Amino acid sequence: MAQTYLTGACLCKNIAYRITLPTPGTLPKVILCHCTNCKRYTGSGFSANIVVPQSSFEYTKGSPKLYSDRGDRGGVVVVREFCPDCGTPFTSRSGDDGEEVAVKSGTLDDEHRVKCAELGMEIYYHRKDGWVDGMGDESVKRVNGSMDG
Ligand SMILES: [Zn+2]
Ligand SMILES: [Zn+2]
Fold this sequence. Notes:
binds zinc ion, metal-binding, globular, metal ion binding, 10 strands, mainly beta, three-stranded antiparallel beta sheet, seven-stranded mixed beta sheet, CENP-V/GFA domain-containing protein, Metal Binding Protein, Guanine Nucleotide Exchange Factor, Chain A, zinc, lyase
């Protein structure tokens, strides 16, 4: 059966959401953002997002807190939604354009996240951290599990 929706939640599970896919069976591709604000916001090297129509996204449990920041170029305000209890970032969207929302793909529930397996685009590529290239490097030690094994 064609996939018609995706669900996700934050780490503490106080907030959950559902995305109704605009085209059933067509899963969104992942878009990486290497901008400096996404690095800080995620505490990582980049953010991983799926972009969906705002109208397809709804919270099914709890409500997030909003944070407005400036885009990398200083102009457009980006509105970010996150869980006030555990800090998980959910979405970011341009203050100018309420049509689409970028949902952090790491917040999708496991069975839905694994289906969004295709990388579509990388933006703010000139801000990419050097270590990111090491992710495909065979010489890097790989462990299935934590650092202690
Ligand atoms: Zn939470
Ligand atoms: Zn970004």
